[in-house]
What does this fold into?
Amino acid sequence: MDISIFLDPVPEKCFGEAYRPGKKTLGETITIFRSEEAFPNLENVDMAILGVKEERGSVDNRGCADGIDHIRKALYPLFNHWPQLNIIDLGDVKTGKEINDTYFAVNQILTELLKNKIVPIVIGAGQDLTYTMYQVYEPTGKLVNITAIDPMFDIGNDQDPLNSHSYLSHIILQQPNFLFNFTNIGYQSYYVDTENTELMKQLLFDAYRLGSVKSNIEMTEPLIRNSNILSFDIAAIRAADAPGVKNASPNGFNGEEACRMTRYAGLSYKLSSIGFFEYNPHYDINSRTANLIAEMIWYFFEGFSNRQDDVPTLESTDFKRYNVQISDGQTDLVFLCHKITGKWWMDMSFLQNGDQRLERHHFIPCSKEDYDQAMRNELPDKWWQFYQKLM
It folds into this structure.
């Protein structure tokens, strides 16, 4: 499909300071769709940046459609450390007359990118685009894992139209449904209805409060490693580090933590699309937020450059195997540790029932702490959660 019909080239105002002769910045070394030039070839591309100047689905954040060029201005001057990666900036999706027209264009572009095994990096717009990203996976018939780094759950009410505060309910209610697991990282309790907290538990979804995550940021690595889609709401970052959000909070992740999580996303062999949403330049201070988002994308590139296929299969020989028996005498837990990357997994392939949709979900990313907990004769919550999902 010719996706160029849906795209406008990157505006010339995004260049300028990006070019430092001989310095090999991203602005000089990646392929960029520019005016007066032919649309780039997608062959052998690893990652593609896609701007979406759409704000009609963003609740009370008018102006977020204007943030894309600010992010590019901050990203292009950063140095490119990965000559082996083929990165492309596809420009911006043409905004439709109706919001559904924009959703359709984004869907067609992402479908083509994923078909060519290109990882899209969506920037700009509201977090409602997470629903569109999810829909792209539906035709594959495979179950999908989504992780949202977000101070709230964005469930909304059943009757709410699709927007940045209700996209999750639209995903949950979609039929047929291909969502296997949803994970929220960094929710802040004062922004979350207790009924929604209970709903997350009933749906066997993961939800991790900001405080528990900040005390051990490494715990986010296996959570992100289990994801196909990562949706990053910039409001999850504290206002001191990211003021460019209409409803910026004094609490949240700091810039370093945000960069670590996007690096984890880049490292994940399963993750195939990522989006950065809700940035509003009209509230930014000295481009502080734009610079941070650019660094987060840079760390995603850095992680991607070190990706290895460390996802287990039944035939895998690249893992050390550890069998742990809980004292009830009936529960045997099997842990796998990759011999090179040192990443841990729980082997739940004993629950296979012939459902091919679940085939990729019988090996659950975990941490060394989960193994240590099992060794203390304690059943990890994650094991029990996915046992119920797979039964």
The chain has a mean pLDDT of 94.
